[in-house]
Each structure stands twice: as structure tokens, then as C-alpha cells.
Amino acid sequence: MDKIFKGMKPSRRSFLTGAAAAGAGAVATVAKGQGAPDPAIVEQQPWRTFLGEGVDAYPYGMPSEHEAHVIRRSVPWLTADPISSVNFTPLHELDGIITPNGLCFERHHGGIAEVDPVEHRLMINGLVDKQMVFTMEDLKRFPRENHVYFLECAANSGMEWAGAQLNGCQFTHGMIHNVMYTGIPLRLLLEEAGVKTNGKWIMVEGADAAGMNRSIPIEKAMDDCLIAFKMNGEALRPEQGYPVRLVVPGWEGNMWVKWLRRIEVGDQPWHAREETSKYTDLLENGTARRFTWEMDAKSVITNPSPQAPITHGPGPTVLTGVAWSGRGTIPRVDVTIDGGKNWYQARMSGPSLNKSMHRFYFEFDWDGTPLLLQSRAHDSTGYVQPTKNELRAIRGENSIYHNNGIQTWYVNEQGIAENVEIS
Question: The domain at 76-289 falls in which architecture?
Fold first, then answer.
């Protein structure tokens, strides 16, 4: 392996210097002055020969037809029934930190509930001074806030516990999205109802046919939870809980109950199905850890990756990815292109927001030899993303949930990438 990586010199300076010295010639196709002219330059393209559609052609804007491949995707053998299954965000096709509404992954337990907002109600009952029922119009009269948060399913990367399984960034890490939520602090509704002194937990329940419910400590409910009705400025999509859902920043996505219809205050957790037989961490000795809600710091390189190979020859190359933490921000991400022999600090770009995705880049000169790509996130608490073997040493291989181990992509001489593990 030493021979493979000999002479590979990652250098942002050389990347920029080379591009500047060549007047962009280092990163652009060489003009074909010495040979046949490039038809894309010298020939008139069809879109220059006729007028386009008018302003009313697309009342709701849609992506270009050339981006039709950028969609959520499912894994057939994971989808026993679409009514209770999952699809994945195409992380390898995105940049920045905001996930477009139409690409946010879906996870349902009873299919998509089509709820009439006029008929929808949100009830608060249990250990409160006064039981209350809110219409959507009632909710919109409360003070609202805007926050960008990631939502990650606890089962994201879950198939990787026993080894490299799914060959794609979308499939290994795509049960996550990052959007701006508009909503009401849950605290305000609970204060309106008046939580009794023995009210220590809430149970949130969805209006879908599954009646999905979860227990949440009152401290979290009073801290940063939102009752959200918009994402990225527009109404929630039906698959994202329209007309109203719960937002539980930094905690596993199963707790972010969609189509929210009821909040009950109690003095102890409800021990619902999704917090007993599911969404617990099965350890090597057969016991299960429960109530492990926080999502630990994690990162993944989105390009290059199995669905986003390197398509150019040797020379300036841009590596990029995303990182996130349920406990704060990501001030630093390290990357390696040689399987961990050498680590380099990536360049963070864009806003650094609490419990949100962070975008990182690393520019290097690829010499055409194989690569072993990894990223390692550091969060604002000092936590460092572990290797998969470090996780397995503590938890074994029986789990499904909360896998935040370092991901490895192998890139061959042709630029084709695949999911691998290295010791």
C-alpha cells in the first residue's frame, strides 16, 4: 500500500496555483485549436434558435429535466412494504447544507397520512392545569421561530455494523436531511396548558394510521423542541408530516413525530413499541441500551463516492462532504486519502449552526493512483468521530441503530469508488 500512495501530495496551494498559472486551463478542457473545433462552441445549439416557455409554464417550479436522476431512492431488499419503509436522500448530488424539500428522505410506519389542515387538531392532556385543543389557525397565532436542524434516522448507516454492505453514499448515509424549520417553541404550548409539578415526561402521538408515539423528557420538551408547520419557507410536505410535526433537535428522527395530534404529560415514560423493541441498542451480550436519543458526531465524504466517481483524469480534484452533531457544531473535519496514514484538516464552508449539517471541502492533486478516502468529525464538545472498530469494541455487531463510525471509500485508477472497510 505504501507504493500505491507514494508521490501523492494533497495541496490546496498547488491546486490554486496551478489553476491560476494556467488561466483556468488546469481545470478546463483544453481548447481544440490544434485539432477539430469543439462542436459545443462553434455550432449553434438548439436552445438558441427558439423562444422558451413563458412565466406561467410552470406554476410550481421544478428542476431541470437534466437533473431528473436526482431523486430519493429505495433499496429493494430493505423495502418489504412501501407503507412501512424508507427511502434515501441523494447526498452525493447535493452541495451546501440545505436539503431541498423534494429530496428529504422518508420513513413511514403506516404510509403517508393525507391530513386536511382545517380538520386537524392538536390536543394537550394529562398532567396539565387545563386540557387544550388547538386548530392550525390557533397555532399560527403563537410566536414562531426559524432554525436549521438536521434530522437523522437512528438506523442511518445501520446496515454497516457487520461490514461494508450498501454501495453508495445515498444508501449508507442518506437517512438524513437538513432544513430550516419554522414553528412554535413547544415550551409555549406547555406553558399555556400549565404542566403540573409531577409532569416529568411527555408522550407525543401522530395522526397517521400507525398512531406512532414516543416518550420525551420534559426538560427536552421545554428546551428546544418546536411544533413546526413549515420547512425551507413552505408548508411541510405530506411525507414530512403536513400540516404539523414535532422537531426534536439533535435527537433521533423517530422522536420527531409527524402529523402531530396529541401531547400527553405524564410522570414516567410510556415504554412504547418504538422505545422498547425498536430504537434500542442491542449489545454483544444480548442486553439493550435504551433511551440513547442523542445523535453523536458523524461525517461522510459525498464526492468522490460510489455514486459520484471521479470522471476526470489526474490533476486538481475537489473532495467534499458533510458533518453533523446532535450536541452542537462541527468546528473541524479531518480527511485522509491514504486510509489514515496522513490526515489533513478540511476547509469548512458556509454557516456553522447548532445541530445542523456543516459542509467541508478538501482540494488536492490526484495523481491517478488508488485512494482510500475517510473523514473524521470533531464537534464543539471535543468529541471525535470513532472508527467502526472502536464502536464494535464497545457495542459488538448486533445493533442496528446509532452507527456513527468513520466511512471508507476505495477509489481505483479509473476513479470508480466502492464501499470498503480497512483495519
Answer: Alpha-Beta Complex (3.90)
Q: Torsions phi, psi of 101, nearest 5?
A: -55, -40
344-392 pLDDT tens trace: 999 999 999 999 999 999 999 999 999 999 999 999 999 999 999 999 9
> Which helix (H) or strand (E) segment is 389 a member of?
helix 388-395
pLDDT in tens, 160-185: 998 999 999 999 999 999 999 999 99
Per-residue pLDDT tens digits for 63-104: 999 999 999 999 988 877 888 899 999 999 999 999 999 999
> Got the DSSP string for 252-285?
-GGGS-SSEEEEEEESS----GGGTTSS-EE-TT
Q: Find how far residue 393's CA is from the centre of its chain.
A: 26
Contact assessment for residue 166 and residue 146, using Cβ atoms and an 8 Å cutoff: no
Q: Distance between CA atoms of 403 and 156, rounded to whole angstroms?
A: 7
The 10 Å Cβ neighbour count of residue 126 is 19
- 37, with CB counted inside 10 A (0-12, 13-18, 19+), is exposed
Please name the helix (run of DSSP H) or strand (run of DSSP E) that holds residue 284, with its range, or none: none
Domain boundaries, the chain: 76-289, 298-420
CATH code for 298-420? 2.60.40.650
At 126, give phi and psi (nearest 5°). 95, -135
Q: How much of the chain exceeds pLDDT 90, in percent?
A: 85
Whole-angstrom Cα distance, residue 178 to residue 234? 15
Grid cell in block for residue 305: 463516492
Residue 11, CA distances (Å) to 80, 118, 133, 315, 348 in order? 47, 58, 60, 11, 16
Helix ranges (DSSP H) in 181-259: 186-193, 218-221
